[in-house]
Amino acid sequence: MLRSSFTGLETARRALFAQRMAIDTTGHNIANANTPGYRRQRAEMVATPPAPGPMQPGTGVKVATIERMRDHFVDMQIRHSHASLGRWEARSDCLEQLQEVFKEPSEIGLSTMMDRFWIAWQELSGGATDPGRRTAVIQEASTLASAFGLISRQLKEASDDIQVNIDSLVHSVNATAESIARLNHEIVRGGVVGENVSDLMDQRDMLLDQLARDVNINVVETPEGQVNVSVGSRLLVSGVTAFKMDVSGSFAGGRIQGLLEAKNEIIPSYQAKLDQLAQALKDTVNAQHSAGVDMYGDAGLGFFTGTGAADLAVSDALKNDPNKIAASRSGTGPGDGSNALAMAQLKDALAIGTPPTASFRDFYGSIITELGLATQESSRAADVYNGVLEQQQMRRDAVSGVSLDEELMQLIRYQAAYDAASRLVSVMDEMLETLINRTGIVGR
Amino acid sequence: MRVTNSTMINKAIRNVDGAFRRYIACQEKVASGRSINHLSDDPHGAARAVRLRSVLRGVEQYKRNAENADTSVRTYDDNLDKVGSILNRVRELVVRGATDSATPTEREAMAVEVRELFDELVHAGNASHLGAYMYAGHRTGKSPFEVIDDMGDANWPVSYAGDSGVNRVEVGPGLTLEINITGEQVFMGQSGGVNIFRTVRQIEQHLTESDVPKLSGSDLASLDQAINQVLKFRAELGGRGSRLELVINRLESDSVSITELLSKTEDVDLADAIMRLAEQDVVYQAALAAAARSVQAGLLQYLK
Lengths: 444, 304
Description:
The complex is a heterodimer of chains A (about 450) and B (about 300).
Chain A: H1 7-31, E1 41-47, E2 61-68, H2 72-102, H3 110-125, H4 131-192, H5 198-214, E3 217-221, E4 227-231, E5 234-238, E6 241-242, H6 255-290, E7 304-305, E8 313-314, H7 316-320, H8 338-344, H9 360-400, H10 404-437
Antiparallel strand pairs in A: 1-2, 3-4, 4-5, 5-6, 7-8
Helix pairs in contact in A: 1-10, 2-4, 2-5, 2-6, 2-9, 3-4, 3-8, 4-5, 4-6, 6-9
Chain B: H1 5-32, H2 43-97, H3 104-125, E1 128-129, E2 132-133, E3 145-147, E4 158-160, E5 168-172, E6 175-178, H4 183-186, H5 196-208, H6 212-266, H7 270-296
Antiparallel strand pairs in B: 1-2, 3-4, 5-6
Helix pairs in contact in B: 1-7, 2-3, 2-6, 3-5, 5-6
């Protein structure tokens, strides 16, 4: 088949068009080099088919698609890492807060208060008639009781704070789910009319990452380009519909799960141990106290009142009259400090558990060791997932990130091609000039 | 792997961030002087430190108890020393009164002095230490000895209102020491001793009556027994004193070794910590320098 004289011009036009589009795409990449969540795009050029017939040269180039560079597998891994990191970070934050509540090791922690309480009894045993030592016992006991109360209250406050945190996170998850549903709608609509929806997809991916930090999500992409998001067995986003999140379900990760664990497991377990310690202290001290006799020759009253750590207090009768401290065992006279001594010796007695297996100090020691180890475990796990996430983000970056050096080289390449295509137009122009204006003028 | 600008920048940020965090951690250690600032720095070490500090407080208290006991031993000893010299003075008078050269008038004058010495004895028996009557056993609230003038009374010449209560202090885990002596034992001669007050009053009576045979016989004998009785308790006090001294020495050395152990557990080795801080400083500077260089570099610099 004969080729048209103008075919070359058409080829040049196509080349100019395609290179322009590639340059624009490169420009878009450069412009978005620092945009969070942006994935680089690439103009995929293909040669246009030659005209039919034998020995036909090609007809030029066209941009088939603008490809969005991404790796589904890495995206999924990153979402799972976000969920694990979120969970451990939430736990670690909570445990670090508990460490501050227990204030160990220091001179103002519960262990110091307990020691001082026992020491006051020791002092009293050496001088049972001394009113100063009696008052000191009451004071140290009150300090100890209020230290229990303070820790208990701070645990409660930490738990309340976490609930506020969970509520606001659930709120933000619901809002994000709605945005994703809206983007689903936009993407499908755009896809139908052939628009480039890459940037909308970038936005949606970023929202999915954000969501994964709060709850562990499963993402399924439909052939139409929508994503369905589920949390556990419940759907959160289905096509263009968003559902409200249900906190009572189970989550395999995410900040909300970490916070729920902190609120429902971690804090109550320390609260229970603290209550157990306070209860044992109250029972043991009261039993010893009632075995003694006070300055008036009466049997000792209950020393501590309360039902746990929160309301542990020295009984008012004793607070008002320290002479009611039962320092004496025999009741023979005020100089007898043998019950105070027996009280002081409870310091190392096995008093906690049935049968008793731990002293107050050992039991408290095990609480703080456990707290320290749990904190260490959580922050190490968070560090590990941070490292994993870093690796995965590097892998995502390797596929999706914009390299300015690379874009600049592409720019030079496309510019050169564009220049060459322009030159092709000049060449065609000159050829036609020759053909039209300088041909067939022999003998003129 | 393809490396992009953001990979490089993120990496640089993380490196600088990590180096800075380690630098701050080292600085905290140096500044606080403690290697354990939070439980999670070393959970077992922290628990050990809490335990050691509690043990140390216990030892310090035992030491205070022992020192208080030592003070009270000294007080008893001083008091019994006085009692001993009173009895020795009585003995001198008895020896003089028992000689034939003494006249009944002289003996009567001696009897007056013995009566005064008797009052001093009662006074010594009613001595108090830190607001508590020393010889009253547990009934430290009121004076244990009361003079009875009626010779017909079974308790004549002094009744004892105290009891045999023993006060103990703890000077080690489960290790208690008696700190008091009761008047019943020292003065009243309970369980085989002599009643010192009665002996002295009888001497006074016999001096007044110029009963030389009794003075040189039974009176002198029971007075010597009384003096020995006081000496016996002083010897026991001496024994308690030296035992307390041993206990205090041992508690002091315990306190030193526990403090040392505590320091090893939670104090920072300053030389080591400062070296590490310097090291982290260098690492941090290097990370900053590397970040500055890597962020600058790019093809753009070479394009015209």
